[in-house]
Structure formats: C-alpha cells, structure tokens
Design goal:
The chain is of the alpha/beta class. It is built from seven helices and seven strands, in the order E-H-E-E-H-E-H-E-H-H-H-H-E-E. It has one domain: Ribonuclease H-like superfamily/Ribonuclease H (Nucleotidyltransferase, domain 5, 2-Layer Sandwich).
C-alpha cells in the first residue's frame, strides 16, 4: 500500500492527572510518517486541522498501542470516527502472538539495530510544561520512526524479536497484512467543505 501513515501522539498530561479518563487527555503533538511522500510531519494541538485530511486519505494508519491510547485521545478532537479508517496496531498483533504486551522500546532493542526511542512520555509532558515543543516533535517523530522500522521489519520478515526473562533474544511470528474482514476505505472526507 502506498498511502499508509504511521503515527504517534504525545499528551500534555499524565494518566494520574486525568484519573485514567481518556476524555480528559490533551494532545501536545501528533507526528506522522507518510509513505506516499516519504516525509515526517508533526502537528501541535492547534494544528490538528491539518492532520485530519492526511488520516482520512490513508489506505491504513499504523501505530503502537494506538487502538487503546492514540485513537481514543484523537477522537476527543475529531468530529468523525477514526475507527472507520483501516488501522494496524502493532502492539495488538504482538499481544495476539505472545499473549503479553511489550513496550515499544523493548521490541526495538531486540529487533532493530541502532534504532531506539530517545526519551519517554513523561519526559514529553515535562517538555510541554517547559514550552519545549521542538523537543516533543523530535521525540515523537523518533517514536514514529521506531514504529515504522518495526512495521517494515515485521512486514518483510513476518517476525519480530523480544528478550525473554532469561535475556535470550527470541523470535515470534507476526502478520501485518491487511485482514480480509476490514471495511473498504471509502476515503472519508469530513474536514473539508462539501
């Protein structure tokens, strides 16, 4: 697919601050990688209007823990239903294969050479409070790059790797192909005037 979009979000607040209520989360930055243009882009909360057409026109959106974190938070801002866009949540595939949830950083460390996360979500919240938006964008784009590299490795090799409790690097099977039961993307367009 040539119009896949890998994405990640960072928030202005933490789970403790919103009392685990997804509706209370505020976005600081959303970053995307677009295969169609081979580019990374980042959007602040006030720029989300520029993001919606990118997601709406995607053949598929790809994230990590995106079904239970990124998409619900984005839905706090979006007028339509982002769940109608074909979506691959790599963490969901990993959990389906292994029966456990793994951190993005742990998968990357076991699977990829020299590609790793540069910080963590709590640091991104601190940067938000310090007004360091460019730092958040760099961090979020690096997370998107890590997710993209994991996706490509899994897509091409049909496996990823993780470290067992004993420290062994262990392969496990993944299938990132499009499921036949996904609805056909109708190229929804809810952000542009009719």
């Amino acid at each position: 697919m040539k119009n896949e979009v890998v994405f990640d979000i960072e928030t202005q607040n933490t789970f403790a601050e919103v009392e685990n209520d997804m509706k209370k989360f505020k976005i600081s930055v959303v970053s995307v990688y677009r295969y169609e243009t081979d580019t990374f882009e980042s959007f602040t909360e006030s720029e989300l209007g520029k993001l919606w057409p990118i997601l709406e026109k995607a053949d598929r959106i790809i994230g990590y823990n995106s079904e239970h974190f990124d998409i619900p938070i984005l839905m706090n801002y979006y007028m339509g239903d982002l769940t109608k866009i074909p979506h691959l949540d790599i963490m969901k595939i990993v959990k389906g294969s292994l029966g456990i949830r793994l951190k993005l950083a742990d998968l990357a460390a076991a699977t990829l050479d020299d590609i790793k996360k540069s910080a963590d979500g709590l640091q991104a919240v601190r940067w938000w409070r310090e007004g360091k938006i460019d730092e958040i964008k760099k961090y979020c784009e690096q997370d998107v790059n890590v997710t993209k590299q994991l996706y490509e490795f899994g897509r091409d090799n049909r496996q990823l790797f993780y470290k067992s409790l004993s420290g062994d690097v262990v392969p496990f099977a993944v299938d990132f192909s499009i499921s036949n039961d996904l609805p056909e993307n109708t190229k929804i367009n809810l952000t542009l005037p009719l």
